[in-house]
Amino acid sequence: MRTTRTTGAEPRTAAKSLTGRLTPYGFISPTAALLFVLMFIPIAMVMGYSLMDNVITNKHPEFVGLDNYVKVLSNGVLPTAVLNTAIFTIVSVIAHLVLGLLFAMMLNTKLLSNLTTGLFRVIYVLPWLFTVAIIAILWRLLLNPNGVINYVLVGLGITPTGIEWLSTPGTALLAVTFINIWAGYPFYMVSLLAGLQGIPTDLYEAAKVDGASALQQFWHMTLPQLKPIIISMSLLDVIWTSQQFALIWMTTGGGPINATEMLSTFTYKLAFSNYEFSQASASAVLLLIVSTVLAYVYARYQKARE
């Protein structure tokens, strides 16, 4: 009888198979470790702080349960912050979409020469190139009572004196919303322009043959083709705009008299103006929940698209 001799081929094959399965995890392990240290651990700490007596300023904080959440939800400034955030977000997102679509369609038209189109592209995309700090300083100078905008309005006789755009309760929210719209529409414009250029021209030629007007082509052809892009960008814009902090803080600081108080500035002031770090942590957790819900909706939509 002939006996089969066992070799080391099978163990080597198993080792290679195991190495092949573990290799992808090796590649993502640095990123996973970074996320764990910079995101998951801080989130867990903030959640813990929200359940304790005032941390940082108290050497021996005690567990208080949901008391901080009750205090935040019963804070008289919170309804104002929620309303301002809702107005700021809704108006900004709608204006971003409308302006971005209008400018994208203008840049996509064949009525303009290549030189003119290129010039307009540079001009329209400029707000996207500036940092938040530059945008805030630029518009604070422009909206100053002695600034260019008031100079033009007074010169045209629209107003007898300069308006305190960022210091008047009746105009502050309008002003910061306008600044945010100006800074954010290029994101829509660039994305929608790419979408417009991806629509086959055969569809429009067939529609013209069938006698469809320009408005009918836009409503029944252009918008349906752009619908996936519009929904994706709108969901992202809602998440980003509702969390806007830097622009508000560097222009109005949430004032005057809470006229531009947002959920982000409300949370910041709880921590670094009132030194209520536990309440600020509770407010941050509530914001995290809202953001998580919005992110879940966005992820579900993207999965449904695929």
TrEMBL record:
<dbReference type="GO" id="GO:0005886">
    <property type="term" value="C:plasma membrane"/>
</dbReference>
<dbReference type="GO" id="GO:0055085">
    <property type="term" value="P:transmembrane transport"/>
</dbReference>
<feature type="transmembrane region" description="Helical">
    <location>
        <begin position="173"/>
        <end position="194"/>
    </location>
</feature>
<dbReference type="InterPro" id="IPR000515">
    <property type="entry name" value="MetI-like"/>
</dbReference>
<keyword id="KW-1003">Cell membrane</keyword>
<keyword id="KW-1133">Transmembrane helix</keyword>
<protein>
    <submittedName>
        <fullName>Sugar ABC transporter permease</fullName>
    </submittedName>
</protein>
<feature type="transmembrane region" description="Helical">
    <location>
        <begin position="81"/>
        <end position="107"/>
    </location>
</feature>
<feature type="domain" description="ABC transmembrane type-1">
    <location>
        <begin position="82"/>
        <end position="298"/>
    </location>
</feature>
<feature type="transmembrane region" description="Helical">
    <location>
        <begin position="280"/>
        <end position="299"/>
    </location>
</feature>
<dbReference type="Pfam" id="PF00528">
    <property type="entry name" value="BPD_transp_1"/>
</dbReference>
<feature type="transmembrane region" description="Helical">
    <location>
        <begin position="31"/>
        <end position="52"/>
    </location>
</feature>
<feature type="transmembrane region" description="Helical">
    <location>
        <begin position="119"/>
        <end position="142"/>
    </location>
</feature>
<comment type="similarity">
    <text>Belongs to the binding-protein-dependent transport system permease family.</text>
</comment>
<keyword id="KW-0813">Transport</keyword>
<keyword id="KW-0812">Transmembrane</keyword>
<dbReference type="InterPro" id="IPR035906">
    <property type="entry name" value="MetI-like_sf"/>
</dbReference>
<keyword id="KW-0472">Membrane</keyword>
<feature type="transmembrane region" description="Helical">
    <location>
        <begin position="148"/>
        <end position="166"/>
    </location>
</feature>
